[in-house]
């Protein structure tokens, strides 16, 4: 067996510093190291704990009350480490710094599964199993005994895939899944409202939602299709001059996943002023007169403020939008994707809006439609809703 | 506790360092021992008792060896010491593997004990044995104070992932050491470099390796990217940990031996093992190979001795037949090099480097794979693939090409040599850059630690 060489490799001390400058640098190294570690550690302990992180869009771990059993098993130590890491001083800065390293030094075009296209669009390619439209949709269509429509917008990934923006080497079957879902709804007896003409420019660069132009196109297509059987449903034009823009840039859900390093430019969130929607009474949480457009969210400080909540202050289980319109009464089953469309649609019809993610567990959509005596039912989603199918199976 | 955890970095380490350097010298060992036990207890408190038991037993064995050195019975004391230590290691690390192997071989249904592996047991058991053996050989003084022995075995910088510090290396420093500013600053830089190796390079490469090893139907390109990424991950993971240990040692006045010396530039497998996990190789050489007769016996006995050492090396790394195969694989190549291959390789140094690298990469497949069929399938993809290149390989190359290239470069002595020459030739500018470089790395490593939840320490399972 050959002789190891470890003896030659015993680390040698630097020896005595050869100059006062060298000695100063040693002091600087030692003190900096110590001060940085101490400052971050002490700062983390002394600072008030935060409940959630806007950047990461999640609740942060909270202080742990140790138990004998938890300490013996080591579980409490694991929780304490999560707590300390989550609450770490300048945590957001470290996360952004790491993202900048990934983008600018390691030249990684993907971060957390999100691809940065050359024009700044953040795209989330995905390869998943083909979705199955549950039989509950067919049963619902039969039970509700009213026309049922499905406006299935292509997800941003579908459009990017269609336009060849996702590199060839990235596996993504979003188009295939979109088509499978469309076919499933048609098979369930639901009339399809095609939104396939949407372009990438109809979506936010840094968020998975569509922008106001995409939403307006969808409104146009919905009115055109449903209007064929409900002639009272007519498109009401908006005044282009009342279109407003946020002063602060908008960094959406995909920016949160990639950080500002990747979402360098941000979006401008546009909306029509509340004056365009006068006479529409918005009710939710047992209170009417709720704002349809709430500019508080537009003016909010913070890079990752959720400005998309400008529309009806976000999602609500059941929401009604009524006016003196002569249009029909529609039940809209939706998720957040529909929010910018609803103000337009509320000028053409009276709406009962249900987000099945936030209703009681015994909610029954077909019973609700009958109770509300709606004229038609509209599902309004983008094609990335495979995860919602189980909920629909229970609620329809 | 992990070195690469926020609690260690921002609470434990600065607090322990501060108190240590404020205390009078008399109390420093005591403080370091308390801190080390807390460090070990943080992850698995119940195993502190096991470690303390091991320390106590070996303390008594060493006293007995010292007292009865000249009598015949000393060999029985040494034999008992080996049986007790290996018994302890065997029960916690190998009992499940042993019984499972019997059940599979003889179709029996013996009860398979489910024993939790205490962190670092392989390291602290070997260190404890090293202590008694060194006392027996009079390579180090017997410790009358059990707290000093406990400090040697439990010293937190090297406790759970090495390097395996031999007693003779630090025996004098336990009671007589000097902490100096140059060494402290050197330790800080070394620690930061190790932390960066682990958090930036090892974890970056580890994500690539894990992704690819979890895939099926690999193309040739993908298989090679995967194993290269794994080779880099394991090197930077373990050598990074050793750097951190050495750096921490210097901050407390200890001098641990180097554990790695650019192993991937080796020109033979024998050389690779003189550059990789040096402390383990020298432990087996001095405490197993040489006592068996080493090179001073007939050629066949030399090969027998090598076979024993390499089977044990494989087993030390893990209780699995794939680890045994990995050890045997290296044993065979080292025997061949000893017989004739070494002389041939010496004539063609460039080819020898590439050849050795390929052999090492194939060895890592056995090390990484959970089962033999998995390893064979992977090796087939590397050498006799169905597909040469696919989109998944392109993705890995585009997404991770830079980190892999940087890691390949960092695995050679080139960056260090360039850095040293720059510092030597550019005077104050160089020294300032050296300081700035360390601080930038500290922030980058911390950002990687905070941002990433991907933080496995491969060597902890040993």
From TrEMBL, chain A:
Residues 148-260 form the AlgX/AlgJ SGNH hydrolase-like domain. The chain crosses the membrane at residues 25-46. Keywords: Alginate biosynthesis, Membrane, Periplasm, Signal, Transferase, Transmembrane, Transmembrane helix. Pathway: Glycan biosynthesis; alginate biosynthesis. InterPro entries: ALGX/ALGJ_SGNH-like (IPR031811). It is found in: Periplasm. Pfam families: ALGX (PF16822). This is AlgX/AlgJ SGNH hydrolase-like domain-containing protein. It comes from Exiguobacterium sibiricum (strain DSM 17290 / CCUG 55495 / CIP 109462 / JCM 13490 / 255-15).
TrEMBL record, chain B:
It is a multi-pass membrane protein. One of its GO terms (cellular component) is plasma membrane. The keyword Transmembrane applies. It is found in: Cell membrane. Keywords: Acyltransferase, Cell membrane, Membrane, Transferase, Transmembrane, Transmembrane helix. GO terms for biological process: alginic acid biosynthetic process. The chain crosses the membrane at residues 7-27, 47-65, 77-95, 115-135, 147-165, 218-238, 308-332, 344-367, 435-459. Pfam families: MBOAT. InterPro entries: Ac/AlaTfrase_AlgI/DltB, AlgI, MB_O-acyltransferase, MBOAT_fam. The keyword Nucleotide-binding does not apply. One of its GO terms (molecular function) is acyltransferase activity. Belongs to the membrane-bound acyltransferase family. This is Membrane bound O-acyl transferase MBOAT family protein.
